[in-house]
Amino acid sequence: MKIAIVILNWNGESLLKQFLPSVMAHSKGADIYVVDNASTDGSIAFLKKEYPEIGIVQNLENGGFAKGYNDGLKHIKADVFCLLNSDVEVSENWLEPIQEAFSNSPDVAIIQPKILDLKNKDCFEYAGAAGGFIDMLGYPFCRGRIFQALEKDEGQYDDTTEIFWATGACMFIKRDIFNSLGGFDEDYFAHQEEVDLCWRAKNAGHKVLYVGKSHIYHLGGSTLSNMNPKKTFLNFRNSLYSITKNLPKRKAFPIILFRLLLDGIAALRFVFQLKFAHCWAILRAHISFYGNFRKLYKKREKANFILKYHTTTSIVWSHFVNQVKNFNILVKD
Fold it and tell me: Residue 307 pLDDT > 70, yes or no?
C-alpha cells in the first residue's frame, strides 16, 4: 500500500519550517508532497532549498481547501492519500496502525487518527478529536469535543471504531474512492467539506474508521480561528449545504426549516453577546444558501440516501440545555 502524505499550503512558510521536520522523521515509506495554493511568501523557495526530496504541486490560484486538494491530487499517484494540515506534528510510528487497519478492513475507505492539542497534549483538539459524528438535525460533533468542551485524553478513545466523518486536519482516503466521489465539493471553499465527503462516502456504502492507536498533535486555528466571523459564515452555510445534498427529501426539508430557525436563535445569541459580526455572518450564510439552493438541489441526484446517520437526537439540546460535555455521557443522554 503506497501512501502519499499531501500537505496543502498557502503562505505557510513558518508552519512548514515548524512542522515538516516531524513529518519527515516519522513517515518512512510514504511519499511526501506539498500542494501550494499560489503562495506569495517564500514557501516554494524554502521547500526547494531545505527539502528537495518533497514533491511540489503548484496550483494556479488559491481555491481554498476543497479546490486546492482537488487540483493538486490530480498530479499525485498513490493507493492512499493522507491529507494533512500544515500545522500538524506527527508521532513516531503513526502510519503503521493506519496501514494495518486498511489491510484488515477492505471495505474501509477513510481513516482518521486521534487528534490531540499541540498546545495541551493531554487534551483532544477541536478539529476532529476522536472521530466525527452527526446528530438528527445534521449538526456535526466529535468524540472528545462537543462544541467548545474538550475532553482530557485518558485512553477512553484508544479504540478502533466506525465513525461518521473524519477530519480534514488528517484524513486518509483511498485514491480510487476519492476520485469516484468526485473529490471535495468546491462550492464549500473551506470548512465541513470533509463532512460532506464522508457523508457521500457513507451513502455510497463505504466505511469511515477512527484508529486511536495512531495519534497526531494539531495546532489549530492557523487558517481561521474559531472566533473569526468568516469561519462562522462557512460553518453555518456549509452545514445547510450538506443537509440539502445528502438527506432524503422527506427528512431534508423539515430539518432545513428547523435549522434555519435554530440559526436565527444563534444569531440572536450573538447579538446579546455583542458579537454583531458573527450575527451578520449567519445572515450572510442564509443569503448564500438561498442563492445556491437550486444548484445544491441538482447535486442530490447523485446521492443514494441510504444512511441512518445520527447518534443523538440533538447535540445542541444535549449540550446547551442538558449541559452534556462528554461524549460517553451523551450517548446515554
Answer: no
**Cα dist from 218 to 51, 80, 194, 244, whole Å:** 22, 21, 17, 31
Residues ≥6 apart with Cβ < 8 Å to 319: 146, 147, 149, 325
- Which grid cell sits at 253? 426539508
Q: How far apart are CA 237 and CA 235, in angstroms?
A: 6
Q: Is the pLDDT of residue 85 over 90?
A: yes
Question: 88-134 pLDDT, tens per residue?
Answer: 999 999 999 999 999 999 999 999 999 999 999 999 999 999 999 99
For the chain, residues classed under CATH 3.90.550.10 are: 3-218
**Nearest of 245, 113, 134, 249 to residue 182 by alpha carbon:** 245
- Asked if residues 84 and 6 have their Cβ atoms less than 8 Å apart, the reply is yes
Separation CA 251–CA 40 (nearest Å): 45
Whole-model pTM above 0.85? Answer: yes
Helix (H) or strand (E) holding 36: strand 31-37
Convert the pLDDT of each residue in 135-157 to its tens digit.
988 899 999 999 889 999 999 99
Residues 10 and 36: their CA atoms lie apart, in Å, by 6
The answer to whether 325 and 149 have CB atoms below 8 angstroms apart is yes
CB 265 within 8 A of CB 321: no
Whether residue 242 contacts residue 196, with contact meaning beta carbons closer than 8 Å, is answered with yes
Cα separation, 44 vs 11, whole angstroms? 9
Whole-angstrom Cα distance, residue 251 to residue 247? 6
How many CB atoms within 10 Å of residue 56? 17
Cα–Cα dist 82/173, whole Å: 7
- Provide the grid cell at 146: 462537543
Of 128, 129, 127, give the one whose Cα is nearest residue 152. 129
Spell out the residues 6+ positions from residue 227 whose beta carbon is closer than 8 angstroms to its own.
none
- Fold for domain 3-218? Spore Coat Polysaccharide Biosynthesis Protein SpsA; Chain A (3.90.550)
Residues 6 or more apart whose CB falls under 8 angstroms from that of 41 comprise: 11, 12, 13
